Amino acid sequence: MLELKKVTKEFSSKKAVNKLSFKVENGKIFGLIGRNGAGKSTTFRMILNIIQPTEGDILYDNKKINQDVLDKFGYLPEEGSLIPSYTVLELCEYYGALKLMDVAEIREKLINWLERFNILEYLNKKVKDLSKGNRQKIQFIVSNLHNPDFLILDEPFSGLDPISVEELKKCIIELKKEGKTIIFSSHRMDHVEELCDNIVILERGNTVLQGDLKTIRETYRIDGKINNSLNDIFISAVGEAEKEEKEV
What is the CATH number of the domain that holds 144? Predict the structure, then answer.
């Protein structure tokens, strides 16, 4: 289980994240919701030890996160970390080697993932020649190549067409069924409602709502519809243009 306890991150005089606390239980999908600048990516970077919190604690199975723990994590960053001059095969061999995978294992898993996304023809294609959507698929494959127990996906559906979004959703659901723990960020409530067990909504680094998604739905339900007070929270967190009305 991942647990954040009153985590704060300050940059100069600005609090990017303010006293954030939540738990991600093993085998669950957790949603971190908010518009750009809400503190989602900063939170992920603190979990991964890329940056350190100003205050608070981050624990995985009741222990501080170190390199041994990080080997159990997979990470898809919002801003891609792919090497443009590498082919897809070269890229995955490079990242797989960092996780101490042997070449045969890397190639076998890579081919399986490429076939799953129906893009096997890109095996020897350079990353710079791929579309944004296909680069996102490769980024997802890289994050899963070493079979991590815990996946962090920062805006995983960015740049994907509707068909590819559905493909990726199916993959995420299947990974959960395999026992993986997943936390992802989004500004799309439809994605979150479909996939998540628990959520936190952030606005300017502050928590405005959190808890079990089913309980939240029931709490704000009136005559079979989400009432205006919850809609207002969603609008505030992700913006009117990004919110989608749904009956539940």
Answer: 3.40.50.300
Its pTM stands at: 0.87
Average pLDDT over residues 224-234: 52
Q: Is residue 126 part of a domain?
A: yes
Tell me phi and psi for residue 112, to 5 degrees: -60, -45
Residues in the chain: 248
Give how many domains the chain has, as a whole number: 1
Contacts of 133 (CB under 8 A, 6+ apart): 159, 160, 161, 164
pLDDT of res. 12: 87
Give a yes or no: residue 26 inside a domain: yes
* Chain center to CA of 158: 11
The residue range of the domain holding 83 is 2-238
Q: Where are the alpha helices (DSSP H) in 35-187?
A: 40-47, 67-70, 88-98, 103-116, 132-144, 162-177
pLDDT value at 243 more than 50 = no
